[in-house]
Amino acid sequence: MKTITIDISEKVYNLFRGLLKQLPKGSYKIYEEDPDVLTAEEQKELYSIQNKLDKGDLSDFVDWDDVQDKF
Which residues contact 28 (CB under 8 A, 6 or more apart)? Predict the structure, then answer.
């Protein structure tokens, strides 16, 4: 599957959902927006960075030594 993100007005939201429901079953997934929850892509990136940090790899951080000195 491919992913797209769209913002639509509340006026046409239900109409758009109805249009999606006309598509073949299993041909789409709707992920309800929840600003407090990370997207799958954000979670993947977070796990990747955490894995690097666990291994002592600080390459994702620019001027890490400067940041460490401030804390």
Answer: 1, 20
Most confident of 11-15, 38-42, 60-64: 11-15
Tell me, yes or no, if the pTM score tops 0.85.
no
Do residues 5 and 18 touch, judged by C-beta distance below 8 A? no
Q: How many CA atoms lie within 13 Å of 55's alpha carbon, on the beta-carbon side?
A: 9
Q: Does the residue 5 lie in any domain?
A: no
State the average pLDDT for the chain.
81
Q: Is residue 32 part of a domain?
A: yes
Q: DSSP assignment of 2-69, as one string?
A: --------HHHHHHHHHHHHTSPTTS-------TTS--HHHHHHHHHHHHHHHTT--TTSTTHHHHHH
Q: Is residue 3 part of a domain?
A: no
